[in-house]
Write a structure and sequence with these properties.
Number of strands: 9
CATH superfamily: P-loop containing nucleotide triphosphate hydrolases
Order of helices and strands: EHEEEHEEHEHEHHEH
Oligomer: single chain
CATH class: Alpha Beta
Distance between the termini: 24 Å
Helix content: 40-55%
Strand content: 15-25%
CATH topology: Rossmann fold
Structural class: alpha/beta
Number of helices: 7
Largest sheet: 5 strands, parallel
């Protein structure tokens, strides 16, 4: 992969913290010149998700072939046989447009990107106010089974423990304040 042409903005958090809402808000701010890095995954699509827009949906075999061919900047088996990763070609695609890359990614992937591009990456951890609020948000989505929710909740304490490894933490107690804080962090970083 060639040297970065733009900045990399990573948003990571346990599921239900609000990182996707924050990333979608930032993408609507044209002055930030951001484009979403579409992750690849081996999981099935949920709800209204669209291949090539929300994720690149790959079969388990396709995903593993891309790992063997070193086509990922980072990848992770987040849950058993549920792989997620960032294709190198996706970053090149966005940089070739002269844009900055924004990620909505799990904590392990986010930290791997920060490690590979320490100067070009702003790594932001989005923290829920507490575990009970996280559980409520996951249930309110109405997208997943109770088993899936339980898996996400069980993983949350491990993910929350990684927060100090990020450049900064946005606590999402009040969404409007979290959106404003995230905007200011990103604007300052890309204009630095």
């Amino acid at each position: 992969m060639s040297a970065p042409k733009g900045k990399l903005i990573v948003f990571s958090a346990p599921s239900g913290s609000g990182k996707t809402t924050i990333v979608r808000h930032l993408l609507k701010q044209p002055e930030l010149n951001l484009e979403f890095s579409i992750s690849a995954t081996s999981r099935e699509s949920r709800g209204q998700e669209v291949d090539g827009k929300d994720y690149y949906f790959l079969s388990l075999e396709e995903f593993k072939n891309k790992i063997r061919n070193d086509e990922f900047l980072e990848w992770e088996e987040v849950y058993r046989d549920n792989f997620y990763g960032t294709l190198k070609s996706e970053i090149e695609r966005i940089w070739s447009k002269g844009k900055h890359v924004i990620f909505d990614i799990d904590v392990t992937g986010g930290l791997r990107i920060k490690k590979k591009f320490p100067e070009e990456t702003l790594a932001v951890f989005v923290k829920p106010p507490n575990l009970n609020e996280l559980i409520r948000r996951l249930k309110d989505r109405g997208e997943e089974s109770q088993d899936k929710i339980n898996m996400r909740v069980a993983k949350a304490p491990v993910e929350l423990a990684t927060a100090p490894q990020f450049d900064t933490i946005v606590v999402n107690t009040d969404l409007d304040k979290a959106l404003e804080d995230a905007y200011n962090l990103v604007a300052n970083f890309i204009n630095d």
